[in-house]
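Tokens for chain A. Residues wanted.
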């Protein structure tokens, strides 16, 4: 990518700021970054925090080579309507919104604008993001590689067919929330069992990090790793029996189906 390549982030909420901060950490020149943000107070905050120029969406779209759209799916139609007039062939639009299809974006932008759909996640804030990217119908290999590089600055990236995006949203997009929910529940359980909250937090967080590292570094199936912890007639077997009685496995399946279905609904509402 040339050093004179401008990237704009439109919609600097939780995910937009996560991406922006990652680009700054990865060494992108701040004079090559633009942010589209409508609230003056938020604009000042971002300018102070990152030293980036916060401009109107139209300005950002006109000046950038790559545009990351990180507004809510429900706002995507309005934002595309606002910027379509200044977009030009050769630009790259990367959408990070759940449910919004590349076909929808392509129908709202001039012909020749390349579109990539991405499902990122918030661990990008600590450069451990997981992003899945899918090209639109007029996207060159160079444009896809450019989108990949954008997301690779904050974690891992895989390429997937767009039809898998709703499922991916349910697994890795929303996934951190399920993990935090489990962590929160285990910490509370520790407190219930009489541990100080700080002790319980430290135990649970290190257990999570250690278990994640084992999964990655050993490549062993999680069921095998779980069996290794489960001594015959021991404590883990007693706990796991309760999780099965409370249908936790079925609850996870139902939860992720609900997330996948919601992603499809967001697509239908576009
Ligand atoms: N949070 C997450 O974990 C993930 C989110 N995503 C996707 O990222 C997108 C944003 O989600 P999230 O960051 O959680 O939501 P937020 O509500 O935190 O961020 C959305 C941002 O867009 C701004 N915005 C709204 N309308 C406009 C506009 N017309 N021009 C410029 N900015 C605008 C909002 O500003 P204001 O508050 O002033 O309205 C807000 O700052 C969604 O599409 C979501 O599907 C994808 C994967 C993970
Ligand atoms: O909850 C949401 O809709 C967004 C998409 C994936 C994670 N957060």
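Reply:
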């Amino acid at each position: 990518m040339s050093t004179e390549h401008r990237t704009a982030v439109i919609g600097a909420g939780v995910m937009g700021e996560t991406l922006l901060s990652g680009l700054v950490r990865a060494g992108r020149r701040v004079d090559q970054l633009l942010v589209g943000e409508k609230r003056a107070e938020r604009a000042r905050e971002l300018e102070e925090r990152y030293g980036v120029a916060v401009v109107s969406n139209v300005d950002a779209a006109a000046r950038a080579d790559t545009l990351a759209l990180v507004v809510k799916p429900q706002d995507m139609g309005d934002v595309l309507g606002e910027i379509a007039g200044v977009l030009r062939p050769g630009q790259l639009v990367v959408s990070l919104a759940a449910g919004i299809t590349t076909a929808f974006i392509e129908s709202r932008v001039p012909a020749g604008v390349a579109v990539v759909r991405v499902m990122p996640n918030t661990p990008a804030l600590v450069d451990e993001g997981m992003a899945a990217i899918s090209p639109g119908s007029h996207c060159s290999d160079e444009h896809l590689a450019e989108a990949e590089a954008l997301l690779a600055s904050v974690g891992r990236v895989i390429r997937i067919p767009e039809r898998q995006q709703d499922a991916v949203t349910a697994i890795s997009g929303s996934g951190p929330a399920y993990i935090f929910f489990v962590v929160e529940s285990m910490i509370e359980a520790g407190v219930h069992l009489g541990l100080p909250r700080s002790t319980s937090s430290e135990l649970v967080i290190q257990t999570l990090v250690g278990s994640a590292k084992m999964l990655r570094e050993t490549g062993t199936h999680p069921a095998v790793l779980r069996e290794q912890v489960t001594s015959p007639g021991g404590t883990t077997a007693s706990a796991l029996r309760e999780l099965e009685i409370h249908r936790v496995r079925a609850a996870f399946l139902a939860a992720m189906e609900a997330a996948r279905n919601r992603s499809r609904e967001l697509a239908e509402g576009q």
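The CA atoms of residues 28 and 80 lie 25 Å apart. Residues 197-218 form the longest helix (22 residues).
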